[in-house]
Amino acid sequence: MATLGVIADDLTGATDIAIALTSAGHRTAVVLGEGVPLGGAAADADALVVALKSRTAPVGEAVAASLEALDRLRAAGCERFYVKYCSTFDSTPEGNIGPVCEAVLEALGEEATVIAPAFPANGRTVYRGHLFVGDDLLEESPMRHHPLTPMTDSSLVRLLEPQVSRGKDDIALVPWPVVSRGADAVRAALTRAAAGGARFAVVDALSDDDLDVLARAASGLRLLTGGSALARWLPGPHPVGHLPLTPPEGPRVVLSGSASRATQGQVRHALAAGSGHRLVPGDLRADFDGTVARAAEAALRAPADAPFVVYATAAPEHVVDAADAPLIEEALAETAVRLVAAGVRALLVAGGETSGAVVGRLGVGPLAVGPEVDPGVAWMLARTEDSGGGDDLRLMLKSGNFGREDLFVRAWEEGA
Ligand SMILES: Nc1ncnc2c1ncn2[C@@H]1O[C@H](COP(=O)(O)OP(=O)(O)O)[C@@H](O)[C@H]1O
Ligand SMILES: O=C(O)[C@@H](O)C(=O)COP(=O)(O)O
Predict the structure, then answer these.
(1) 90 C-alpha to center of ligand 1: Å?
(2) Per the domain annotation, does 31 fall within a domain?
(3) Is residue 316 lining ligand 1, measured as CB closer than 6 Å?
(4) What does this protein do (predicted)?
């Protein structure tokens, strides 16, 4: 019976935290979408992750979807909860992170929680409440150019302030000098913050050791919020249990809708090692079906020992107009449907929104965690609807900024 329930605001974020929880000793299932019964997945899992597509949704819809997910997780027996958002705190200007955390906290009748996006293994650290991406402040990182959620401020306190109903008084900072003194010091700081009326404590973290400290300090909290890295420090009842997945036969197709800098490098690397097809919004507007058919046919004809990338953006000069984003998502989803119908059994999808669109169209059941290839990136096993297990798909759903440059080549070689 699952005891830990996670509400994730996008699909790559959901697989990211499922990988972390599996490493921590939780048998973990990712359930896709709103309103999907958790029954079957809950029976064999210690942790359940509900993958929403709420990051860029209007605030009211994001809150409603998150509360509905919370209800399902509680009905499935979960007693402790985690709101998973992006390690770069991606949100729209109105901001869904604050309203969702506040709504879940209130629904649980709890007083306080932590805000912990840090993911040190992927270069996301928090110091004095400022989020860094590698050597840069968030606002100076490539995230300032994200097509859907451009991040132009690095202060978590400032970002959160307009998103929570009580404003500044609702937010406290537990700075690194306190974290460096250990779990007792952090626990005392969290208690003081809550007693002072702050329901949200932003906690600095420069390393995984800091997150270990935070996890121990927050052991009494029923709700945690953050990126995935804090979840690696929540010990589960079972030893590490990634599924061993064997490499699939057939084309090595990557569907990339991510415009993030890491993905652009990965696309260019894969194009040099293999081949690909660029989706241009104008072509899709002129002839959607024909353009998608050409991409899928080229992927099916590609040599099976090298990656084939269907991509929207591979270089900064490729113009990204947010108005075209749904068209690109739809085209990649339709390409995936055609490939799977033609017998392809493994797909690597780059981009959180893109993964949500692709997997939503494929109509797959719960995802189980396979081998981690880079921090936060793993092959997942998905049951297709009515497959009876015979048509299982292997999916790697890659967050835009995750993975080393050779990921699209290595993923197929390190076991799928
Ligand atoms: N050339 C392009 N023109 C318009 N939209 C694009 C282009 N390239 C990517 N996009 C859109 O940008 C969004 C990227 O978001 P996402 O898939 O979450 O990637 P990431 O994980 O990098 O944030 C998607 O909605 C995608 O359709
Ligand atoms: O926490 C993270 O960075 C990821 O799990 C995540 O949510 C990334 O989202 P996308 O970049 O949109 O894939």
Answers:
(1) 14
(2) yes
(3) no
(4) Catalyzes the ATP-dependent phosphorylation of 3-oxo-tetronate to 3-oxo-tetronate 4-phosphate.
